[in-house]
Design a protein that fits this description.
The protein is of the alpha/beta class. It is built from 11 helices and 9 strands. The chain binds flavin-adenine dinucleotide.
Length: 288
Amino acid sequence: MNRIPSISFEFFPPKDTVGEAKLWETLDKLAPYGPRFVSVTYGAGGSTRERTSGIVTRIKRETGLEPAAHLTCVGATRDAVDEVARGWWNAGIRHVVALRGDSPAGSGPYAPHPSGYANAAELTAGLRRVGDFEISVGAYPESHPDSASPEADLDNLKRKLDAGATRAITQYFFDASTFLRFRDRCAAAGITAPIVPGILPVTNFKKVVEFSAACGATVPAWMAELFAGLDDDPETRQLVAASTASELCLALMAEGVQDFHFYTLNRPQLAAAICRRLGVRPELEAAA
Ligand SMILES: Cc1cc2nc3c(=O)[nH]c(=O)nc-3n(C[C@H](O)[C@H](O)[C@H](O)COP(=O)(O)OP(=O)(O)OC[C@H]3O[C@@H](n4cnc5c(N)ncnc54)[C@H](O)[C@@H]3O)c2cc1C
């Protein structure tokens, strides 16, 4: 079964006006690919609250795209988090990606705010009380580093879905088998909600190696070989990144995967190239 997949794109809120202008250009370029939704991340410790809110409400107001706002529990009371969500609901935002978040780098293991939501399952339940949001949550094919065991991590995912989430988006991974094994384990555990693979096209291999060590994602040896010697050759890296991510998606599609969430890093070219390779064409072209 290889029908045209359904896609979504993730962006981060830029720090300055130059980055913001680039984000709107990126959104313009990717909008014709018809994403089911576009999500905007929430910076560590709620640091981007205003920027995330500004971007999702502008997407809602000025584009035909459906925005999804990421929200974390870090460093905020339940009331403060609810207030953010209520503001979004009043602005017409209907989709939230509910996450626990992480403690600031170097400050040790995660500790919830004393009056805050302790984890994403609690946040999901809280959001349900604020409005009838569509809620997506995170899932970890290689288990979250804080989890006691793969089984405990799956139980946690179930708690988030039982609390009212309707979809899980995964942490990135680089081997199709990693996702497929996880999908089987979810099915065996009775999880029926869509588990959408999060796809990260690798543009900066060094950074991905660093980040993967922290978040527990495996960087396969074949990938290190593929990117070896390309540190100073961004153009070749782009080509390798597009073909590697496309191959991963095609392997997943051959196993019946029909939804993909792309971590765009606010760059349109790679996501666009991969979409085209998967048969997702811009609307104008398809209509011509
Ligand atoms: C798709 C996606 C998007 C993301 N977007 C953002 C973003 O915008 N901003 C940001 O800061 N971070 C983001 N993250 C990162 C995320 O915040 C971290 O991975 C964080 O460490 C965990 O968040 P979570 O929502 O998965 O946590 P949770 O699901 O709450 O769980 C985290 C860990 O704690 C364990 N745990 C939770 N509750 C319990 C319990 N009651 N008992 C025992 N163990 C428990 C779980 O097993 C798991 O190991 C994103 C991650 C993903 C996958």
